[in-house]
């Protein structure tokens, strides 16, 4: 309920698009969306006879994963959705949640992908703005860390989307696929999900890229 509430409050702070629905109307819409996701998840659970285990939540920085030694070749799969590249107010969207949890937003923001390197770039990113190149450096580093943490034969599903900044398309999908292959992953498939009604937005949709870490010979 809190997550839906935070999401509703944030939607109103950011855009007047929802005024017509009213806060209660939007809250109910978002709640129904979550209920529907839950229902779909349970259908998948039944269909594939999945057994759910209790989750463990570890709070950490993806770029520091290798400092947690016992994570090497530990995981069967990784499902991840790294941040999109935007030019403004990266974490502002979650401010209300961070405030509720008593977290220092500035500290968290400084660890966000793309915020760390202070303009020091290892790779060559041609015409891309420095901010985007820094984001790509961190994205590549996190893909390398995922590779390190997966068992041989392990799978990666990574959700990414292309954004448009100052009229320029930031080609994150194709770049992520390239990073996965350069890291050693075998590309398996790409599933594109268009965002309905997104014609005028910075993001048109997102893609799930599925890759496999080769099994040991
Ligand atoms: C597109 S959101 C994904 C949200 C998630 N899939 C969900 O449904 O809540 C990107 C997430 O990446 C996290 N993130 C950004 N930089 C990170 C880092 N260096 N280490 C770990 N997580 C990071 C952000 O906190 C944010 O929640």
Q: How big a fraction of the residues is strand? A: 15-25%
What is the CATH topology classification name of the domain at 56-91 and 112-212?
Answer: Rossmann fold
- Give me the number of helical elements: 6
Order of helices and strands: HHEHHHEEEHEE
Shape verdict: globular
Going across the biggest sheet, name each strand in turn: 1-2-6-5
Average pLDDT score: 88
User: Helicity range of the residues?
Assistant: 25-40%
Q: Which helices and strands, and how do they pair?
A:
Blueprint: H1 2-14, H2 22-47, E1 75-80, H3 95-101, H4 105-111, H5 130-149, E2 150-160, E3 163-165, E4 168-170, H6 172-183, E5 186-194, E6 205-212
Parallel strand pairs: 1-2
Antiparallel strand pairs: 2-6, 3-4, 5-6
Helix pairs in contact: 1-2, 5-6
Brief overview:
The chain is α+β, with helices and mostly antiparallel strands and 217 residues long. Helices cover 39% and strands 18% of the residues. Bound molecules: S-adenosylmethionine (SAM).
Q: What do you see in this structure?
A:
The structure is a single chain. The protein is α+β, with helices and mostly antiparallel strands and 217 residues long. The chain has a domain at 56-91 and 112-212: Vaccinia Virus protein VP39 (Rossmann fold, 3-Layer(aba) Sandwich). 39% of the residues lie in helices and 18% in strands. The chain is built from six helices and six strands, in the order ααβαααβββαββ. It has helices at 2-14, 22-47, 95-101, 105-111, 130-149, 172-183, and strands at residues 75-80, 150-160, 163-165, 168-170, 186-194, 205-212. Helix 1 (2-14) packs across helix 2 and helix 5 (130-149) packs across helix 6 (172-183). The chain binds S-adenosylmethionine (SAM). S-adenosylmethionine (SAM) binds at residues 61-63, 81-83, 111-113. Residues 61-63, 81-83, 111-113 line the site of S-adenosylmethionine (SAM).
